[in-house]
Design goal:
Elements lengths: L2 H26 L2 E4 L5 E5 L10 E17 L4 E13 L7 E13 L4 E13 L5 E14 L9 E7 L3 H10 L5
Parallel strand pairs: 1-8
Antiparallel strand pairs: 2-3, 3-4, 4-7, 5-6, 5-8
Length: 178
């Protein structure tokens, strides 16, 4: 095998191993998920009964994608998230702009809840639009692992920040209702 061929084989092997290390890195990262009961939020006309005729919009957290880095020496991980949302409104109407609160909470493999951070996403309907899909990025969510834990022992859980009434509404009417 000549030097040029060896170099090409080494470059190809390095690129293939690089893609494997990304998959290996994700296996070392905290997992992500969406809390079922907090995956949807229905906003109603203020002061009106919580019935379908009074729905202003509904928003669903649909998917969470993640990337992370892990520092074994400091026992920390830093995750970035991309949360996919879909919102609906019954009637097209004019342009509308809403602020939607959501949270990310950490729990460990023993079920202990750790830090919780709240965020907000901007939901914008254009005139006549009845459905909006958008992605909300979170650039950095650091976790300091306990002495007996690894980064993969933690879970980042996403949910919409609901009022007590909205949570009860979800429990009665949502796809997860009993």
């Amino acid at each position: 095998m000549n030097n040029v061929t060896r170099s090409l084989v080494l470059i190809l092997a390095a690129s293939l191993l690089g893609s494997c290390s990304t998959e290996r890195m994700l296996a070392k990262c905290p997992s992500t998920g969406i809390l079922a009961e907090a995956s949807s939020m229905t906003s109603f006309v203020p002061g009106k009964p919580m019935v379908p005729a009074n729905i202003v919009y509904r928003i669903d957290a649909r998917k969470v994608a993640t990337a992370c880095s892990v520092d074994k020496d400091t026992r920390t991980s830093d995750s970035s998230l991309e949360i996919s949302f879909r919102a609906y409104r019954q009637k097209g109407g004019g342009a509308a702009d809403y602020t939607v609160p959501f949270f990310v909470v950490v729990n460990d493999s023993d079920g202990n809840l750790g830090q919780k951070k709240t965020y907000s996403a901007r939901l914008v309907f254009q005139p006549g639009q009845t459905q909006v899909d958008f992605v909300q990025p979170i650039d950095s969510f650091p976790i300091k692992a306990a002495h007996s834990k690894q980064a993969f022992d933690y879970h980042l859980l996403v949910g919409l920040l609901l009022t007590k009434q909205q949570l009860e509404y979800n429990r009665k009417t949502d796809r997860y209702a009993e």
